Amino acid sequence: MKELGKVYGINGPVVYVKGRTLFQMAEKVFVGRQKLIGEVISLNSKMTTIQVYEETSGMKPGEPVYSTGYPMSVILGPGILNNIFDGIERPLKDIEKISGDFIKKGVEVTPLNTEKKWQVHLLVAVGQEVLGGTIIAEVPETKTIMHKAMVPPNVEGTVIEIANDGEYTIEETIVKIQQLDLSIIDVKLAQEWPIRIPRPVSKRYESTIPLVTGQRVVDTLFPIAKGGTAAIPGGFGTGKTMMQHQIAKYSDADIIIYIGCGERGNEMTEVLEDFSKLEDPKSGNSLMERTALIANTSNMPVAAREASIYTGVTLAEYYRDMGYDVAIMADSTSRWAEALRELSGRLEEMPAEEGFPAYLASRIASFYERAGLMQNLNETEGSVSIIGAVSPQGGDFSEPVTQQTKRFVRCFWGLDKALAYERHYPAIHWLKSYSEYVGDLAAWYRDNVSPDFVSNRSQLMEILHQESALMEVVKLIGNDVLPDDQKLTIEIARVIRLGFLQQNAFHADDTAVPLDKQAKMMAIILYLREKCRSLIAIGMPMSLLLNEDIFPKIISIKYDVPNDKLELLDNYYEQIDLFYNKIMEKNA
Amino acid sequence: MAIEYLGLDSINGPLVVLEGIQDAAYDDIVEFVVEREEHKLGRIIEMYENKAVIQVFESTANMSLDNTHTKLTGHAMELPLAPEILGRTFDGIGRPIDGLGEINYVVKRDVNGLPMNPVSREYPRNFIQTGVSAIDALTTLIRGQKLPIFSGDGLPHDQLAAQIVRQASLKTEEEEEFGIVFAAMGVKHDVADYFKRTFEESGVLDHVTMFLNLADDPVVERLITPKVALTAAEYLAFDLGMHILVVMTDMTSYCEALREVSASKQEIPSRKGYPGYLYSDLASLYERAGILADKPGSVTQIPILTMPNDDITHPIPDLTGYITEGQIVLDRSLEGKSIYPPINVLPSLSRLMKDGIGKGFTREDHQDVANQLFASYSRVTDARSLASVIGEDELSDIDKKYIEFGNKFEREFIGQEKDESRSIEETLEKAWELLRILPRHELDRIDTELLNQYYKVGR
Known about the structure:
A: Elongation Factor Tu (Ef-tu), domain 3, Rossmann fold, 26 strands, 23% strand, B: Elongation Factor Tu (Ef-tu), domain 3, 19 strands
């Protein structure tokens, strides 16, 4: 660490160093007496511009700026899971120990615990040829996750020395590798990687397996694939965060990276409290054992908010390299875009739409493109799925961040204010949303869930579309004048909305639903429709059908059939038949 | 520290530039003496080598390039604090204006505060009964929450806030101490007087700390007002262990002051001329609400803002809604029907409500009843718009029921007297009374067992 310049000017999180300096672009630097962490964001012969990840108040011109020679990076190794970091990978629990309940600036903490001894089991032998990414050791990081120590991606050669199985800290050498140029590399449990550079992979696969979330409107109507990307846009109060929490809790990903980017402090506390208590349905351990949280709340420094997204995705890629399916919840990418705007404004760059910088689109694209189902360098397969919340200003989806995000994600779960007002949650609106994965995943659904899953889904969508067209008429002239078959469409759509799409996150069974139950519920609803249709075809009036209690019964399947007693679902076919026969007998 | 600089290099609105300055730090406070007698404060907002851009909290009128002496204080803006600030009144930057003299301070705190570590927070769960049905049942206030009132000019937000303060504070449990911090930013004299009178009448004045920046006070000063108020609130809550309710009004004036300063700094504007950092700036205020796990005390915020032109998508209410934990929205058409408080419940929301109500907190049917009221009332809107096309007589029976439900809901449930305090049980009973207007099979948001228990009772 050497001093390469002095502070010349200070404007919020932006600090200038005058003159021609030896700093590198994107280099991590320490600024001022308090050694605040910063990053070089522009260089010219007259001025070097640095963004600082902490509050700059109290800084004076003339204070030193130190170079590190490295780009902004994160430390990757055991200890990431079951932990909570700020936007630049500083553990908040350690910060609390040093600075108390409030975060002071200039707190020096190491990202990962350097004293803790991890139980290491070596998997390579002396003389073995290894490549970047080769798994050299296993470490039980948490009760749920086996951490795999890997050769850093840019190293390859022959193993010349290994440590014995035993306990090691992340800083101790466990394997020595001689490279082709005879240089010797000490490989430790932890490695460093720059946050803005994607970790290399050997191949990108097509996404053909769904990320099952347990949320019906997602899994059935708008599924996301493992390695896929989705955006959840919605005005305030429409349930973005709730949706992210639900997916983080119940999706079948191996690891969750939850990024709270410029959001509420209480929300992060809630995630932390909830996830520590909740049981992971897959392993039976606490959910935190497979989760890492990155919390850069709205009142924490804005530059670190910009970095938090990259920090999160880099951690995710690291676990993907071990062969895990990782899901990232980014809440909210709009705050990240606003951080870009704020910094861009301070740099007096020429603004594009609504003051956002012109490079907004390329930044959003390069973030979402880091998702994917990949073959890693070590030939394992892993995926990073990204689910980003978007908070459009005024709930207006035509604003730049929503529009640019839409271009680069393949799943769009548009949240709707009107649905949220009537407390229909999740408020994902079926007419505004789409998923490009439906076709890619069709084969998987056919083989693993039910042969008619995709065609049933299309029917459901069709009914919902028909209903929306009919409602236009109803709004003008009322329900009464519609012919009975159209009344039926409206009734069935109501069953779909209340009984299928609406899901109660606070109900023990309904909070997350297995795919089988989703498929069967859908089939039952369609069966009811078919039977009602044939009744109406022979002239039975809709009002007669509504007198029976079959509709409310089907609506409450979600509550009445526990997730572990799916055989109960078969009874509903009988009940529908009974209803059919009863109507026929009474009125034939 | 003792160096004084004579003269300024430029004055532009609230900003002055001073060159040749030594050893000045970014964000420090400076003192100006104009014509050797008038004292003003300013803050360094940009710093280049030896040139400082300073934002003056008071008017820059009568400052000239020659008549001003500038002195560096060497620290950021600080507020002197002591338990005796309760019952006192200060100006917008924390100087006593009640004639009772300076504060004999115990500590001085940087008014900018520090971000609360999410790890140190405790998730808020304690229900505060405000006695206002629409709030208690549908947008429940939780201790440690930030719940703003979105209002419009001429709507009774002040009365509502005063009612909440009166009824919530008086109901606080035995041993626990409560206090109120009141921050006025650019409000009219009569509004400030109204609050003062309310506090007086309900006998809580000695538990109130007031920070007043009135409509005719310097605009830039109000950028500091919420910061000093929240610094006082944090001191009372986390140093003295009190439960503090902070009422901040009017956030719209605050944001306009921010825009004004931003414009004079020639910053690139984002929406409607507001600076790009409006979100971060508001967050640095609102996020100062909360509870710490290892300390008694809490800070609950009720910011009030007037939506320009009643537009909820305007940047100020919009960004506020993204930061705060819900909102209470007042509505002009309800006001037109003489319903007080005119709370439009559909866009209103309390995010923390889900964990602070139900069995053990309020009553086991609370969540379902709330959901049902929302669902049914939103159906009323549809029925009404249909009625406006085809006439009420032509509506189906069920739609007529909804219309009846809607009218009674507005008049009897939302509407109440300004001094009426309903317990949560009374509120929920009233809700059931109204729900019974609708046939049982329409109540699809309520658990069957709860329906069995409550739908019939008392009929």
